[in-house]
Amino acid sequence: MRKEWQVLKNIVWILLFILLCLSPSPSNAKSNTNTMQAKKNYYTKLQIGLPEDVGISSERLKVVDECITTEISRGFPGAVLVIIKDGKIIKDSAYGFAKRYDGHSVLSQPIKMKTTTIFDLASNTKMFSTNFAMQQLVSQGKVDLKQSVQYYLPAFKDRDNDEIKGKAKITVTDLLQHTAGLPSSIHYHDPKKAGVLYSQDRELTKKMVIATPLKHPPHTAQIYSDIDYMLLGIIIEEVTGVSLDDYVEKEIYKPLGLIHTKYNPLQKGETQNEFAATELFGNTRDGAISFPHIRKHTLQGEVHDEKAFYSMAGVSGHAGLFSTGREMAVLLQVMLNGGGYGNLELFNQSTINQFTTPSSPDSSFALGWRINSDDHMHQFFSESAPSTVLGHTGWTGTMTVIDKENQLGICLLTNKRHSHVIDPYKNPNVFAGDQSVISNYGKVIDLIYKAIIS
């Protein structure tokens, strides 16, 4: 018995010795904790910095300020410019006015632009709502880019009277890179232009979008199309089971701490004077256009885009999102980081690579993202930017630039449509704000690149 007890004691001592050997020393424990913490905080979060901290000249940035303020003095409405580099916000500036006019009248006390002013992003919605959602769903394996649109939307079929057929061949990728063959736009909100596709009811509009006939056979033309992105928004809703705004606001913006990035902001706690105003007379183009329920007041805090506002109740994959310059900077940093921010990972670098690879035949298109690959894109991104730079524009006057190579992000938000239409009956889409050197963005972007110290 005593012998068995001695054997048991020896076994216990051996086990204790093994445990002591395996236990980390205090210094090793601290090292392990730091390693875990480093992994946890892997993604860069933006901090405030000085231009010289990241190799940019403050003096040269003054030339950017002079360019914009000169245009403001000539009547350009207003702008906000945010520049980030190497994880630091090195410029966050406001210029001019958020609202200068009420219809024809110049306000006696125009509302000054602030760095916190909220903008209608127009087609930048495509990237920072729809693409972000798609990139997340692809990363999670919930959407397959090679899968047919019909798989997600069974009603997306050729109709007997469609002149061009081939909807069964169209994939999610085709929508993203604008090779599906769909028209660039249908004015669903206007019965005179939409005909049988007319709708000012969101659920009916979704059916009309799905029923929209092809303009070209799939894969034969690359035409930038709002309808492609309206369909992508509908796919996101089908896959997630919630509305597009609910999905991106709960799954993307809220986790990032963004409080002003949202659809239908006036319905969600924002007040009108927080916004940059857009068109002076609703959607009438100074009285040249009319359709049922058209707005005639100066727009401020309501999405300008007609399809989004009248036909999609403010929530669509192609337009409808609002944000501030500072919050857009966070979204730019997510892309520069490879898909995450702080402790949060929204999607992975592999997915970003899929979405940002140039397409064929037009290399200025990736999956939604536009790339600075040719002379046409230089008017937006500038010739000074590398050919790999990507981003997007928005009709209301917004521009985003993502330069992974230089770890540089630029967000230029303007309200150039808050100006008179030059000749509404000749061309209702040319505004006084379009005449400014700021309006194509490339001039400002070029000056920013020239501020980088070699």
TrEMBL record:
UniProt keyword terms in alphabetical order: Hydrolase, Signal
InterPro entries to which the protein is assigned, alphabetical: Beta-lactam-related, Beta-lactam/transpept-like, Diverse_Enzym_Activities
Organism whose genome encodes this protein: Cytobacillus kochii
One Gene Ontology molecular-function label: hydrolase activity
The keyword Signal is annotated on this UniProt entry: yes
Record-annotated Beta-lactamase-related domain positions: 73-432
Endpoints of the signal sequence: 1-29
Protein name per the record: Penicillin binding protein PBP4B
